């Protein structure tokens, strides 16, 4: 999740947050819309900066849908099934793998093909995007690839000993973490082959950790750099991001294909083939609670701003669970297995696919993702798979008047970066006032909404 710049201002200039709607007002768990494809939707949706929802389907298409109403904006036809989840670059480019052995780069506005890169076999892995635009992705040809995001040219590749279904995760320092069917988790130098003093050789590998089973799960990264990942030895592991040393392990009653998500307090949430969703202490691995669904859980949880845990199950349902207790808040029955991992939009809308051929959008109690290091599969709604970096201390913020309404702040942006100016009345639930694309120049952001609260708090979040 984006890092919070330490700007919290108390002011009597408050804002109205209106939730009125035409007709009956929606409540958490209500269906906003559904979109039907022509086959299974195991792909996990991604959300662009303009709210467009991108998702793949086993009908061989990648879809772009209007996030508000679910209307199709475009579709791109590949040669085979699309189980990979799209990732969205800073310029709006959509990157996605396919069982046609290729990684595709598509224009986010039109779906036009920008380039394609052919691997040796199917690409189930979902791409991750480095800070410099490099695209990292695995393939069933047992390799991890680093591709130029602009051209698709291969920068380097790393050979593992098994299929790579796992989706890479990129640390704040550029290290790429990924699992393989050779039972291992790898840490790779995102820059490519370098002299490794530990191994006394030139290699891209920094370390490897061997589990007792295939690693389908995709790693997640804690605020302190800890790497969390599941394995088909029925375990969840916490590894030191720098050395690969095991910090703890937790045994479930079945394989763990689900990728861990991390709450605002560091709690790790993950599903298992034993039909359960677990909440684990991020520091010790101690179980906080478990929730029993009706079938295997391959879906990766997503954590909302209010701590709600959203997750799918092969019992055909999507669940919303209380993050503190595991108590069920609501459930929604689809027509088939839900392997897709929920995505939380900036307004709290949850999007998820199902094997009933559909993509769903739900009303929720959340106002966005949790303010944590890894609140959902591939870190954020754009599915970049990249841990947030700290905001430069050089960011200068000017506040003309702390009590005046409308409330205004000015700051100098970093080129090709994104900022979100948010407001809250209780420091818990935050609403977006405005999103700003950095140009390198000074910008002014103003909250012009009518003041009704006694106090209002603001924060500026640096997205990338």
Radius of gyration: 21 Å
Strand residue content: 35-45%
pLDDT average, as an integer? 90
Number of structural domains? 2
Main beta sheet strand tally, sense and closure: 4 strands, antiparallel
Supply the CATH architecture of the largest domain: 7 Propeller
Low-pLDDT ranges = 1-22
What does this structure look like?
0% of the residues lie in helices and 39% in strands. The chain has two domains: 1-27 and 391-464, Immunoglobulin-like; 37-362, Methylamine Dehydrogenase, Chain H (7 Propeller), CATH 2.130.10.10. It is mostly beta strands and 464 residues long. The protein contains no helices and 41 strands. Mean pLDDT is 90; it is low at 1-22.
List its salient traits.
41 strands; Methylamine Dehydrogenase, Chain H; disordered N terminus; globular; 464 residues; Immunoglobulin-like; mainly beta; four-stranded antiparallel sheet
Give the SSE map.
Layout: E1 3-5, E2 31-36, E3 46-47, E4 53-56, E5 61-65, E6 72-77, E7 87-88, E8 94-97, E9 102-106, E10 113-118, E11 128-129, E12 135-138, E13 143-147, E14 154-159, E15 169-170, E16 175-179, E17 184-189, E18 194-196, E19 201-203, E20 205-210, E21 220-221, E22 227-230, E23 235-239, E24 246-251, E25 261-262, E26 268-271, E27 276-280, E28 287-292, E29 302-303, E30 309-312, E31 317-321, E32 328-333, E33 343-344, E34 350-353, E35 358-362, E36 397-398, E37 407-412, E38 418-424, E39 431-437, E40 442-447, E41 457-462
């Amino acid at each position: 999740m984006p890092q919070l710049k330490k700007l919290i201002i108390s002011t009597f200039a408050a804002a109205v947050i209106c939730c009125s709607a035409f007709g009956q007002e929606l409540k958490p768990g209500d269906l906003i819309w559904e979109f039907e494809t022509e086959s299974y939707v195991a792909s996990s949706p991604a959300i662009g900066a303009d709210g467009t929802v991108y998702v793949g389907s086993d009908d061989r298409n990648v879809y772009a849908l209007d996030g508000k109403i679910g209307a199709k904006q475009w579709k791109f036809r590949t040669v085979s099934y699309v189980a990979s989840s799209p990732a969205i670059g800073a310029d709006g480019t959509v990157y996605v793998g396919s069982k046609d052995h290729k990684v595709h780069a598509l224009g986010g506005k039109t779906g036009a093909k920008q380039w394609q890169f052919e691997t040796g076999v199917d690409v189930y892995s979902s791409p991750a995007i480095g800070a410099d635009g490099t695209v990292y992705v695995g393939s069933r040809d047992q390799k991890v690839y680093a591709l130029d995001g602009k051209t698709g040219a291969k920068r380097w590749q790393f050979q593992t000993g098994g299929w790579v279904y796992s989706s890479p995760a990129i640390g704040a320092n550029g290290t790429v973490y990924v699992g393989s069917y050779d039972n291992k988790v790898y840490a790779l130098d995102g820059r490519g082959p370098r002299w490794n003093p530990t191994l006394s050789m030139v290699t891209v590998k920094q370390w490897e950790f061997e589990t007792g089973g295939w690693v389908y799960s995709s790693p997640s990264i804690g605020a302190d750099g800890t790497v969390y990942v599941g394995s088909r030895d029925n375990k969840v592991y916490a590894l030191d991001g720098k050395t690969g040393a095991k910090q703890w392990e937790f045994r479930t009653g079945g394989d763990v294909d689900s990728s861990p998500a991390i709450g605002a307090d560091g709690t790790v949430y993950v599903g298992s083939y034993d039909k359960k969703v677990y909440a684990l202490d991020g520091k010790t691995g101690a179980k906080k609670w478990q929730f029993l669904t009706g079938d295997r859980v391959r879906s990766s949880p997503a954590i909302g701003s209010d701590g709600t845990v959203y997750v799918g199950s092969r019992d055909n349902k999507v669940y919303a669970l209380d993050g503190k207790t595991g108590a069920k808040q609501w459930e929604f029955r689809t027509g088939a297995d839900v392997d897709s991992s929920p995505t939380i939009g900036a307004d709290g809308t949850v999007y998820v696919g199902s094997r009933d051929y559909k993509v769903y959008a739900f009303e929720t109690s959340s106002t966005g993702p949790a303010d944590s290091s890894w609140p959902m599969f591939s870190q954020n709604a754009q599915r970049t798979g990249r841990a947030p970096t700290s905001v430069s201390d050089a960011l200068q913020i000017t506040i003309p008047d702390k009590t005046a309404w409308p409330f205004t702040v000015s700051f100098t942006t970093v080129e090709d970066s994104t900022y979100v100016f948010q407001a809250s009345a209780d420091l818990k639930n935050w609403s977006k006032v405005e999103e700003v694309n950095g140009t390198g120049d000074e910008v002014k952001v103003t909250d012009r909404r009518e003041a009704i609260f006694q106090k209002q708090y603001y924060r500026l979040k640096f997205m990338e």
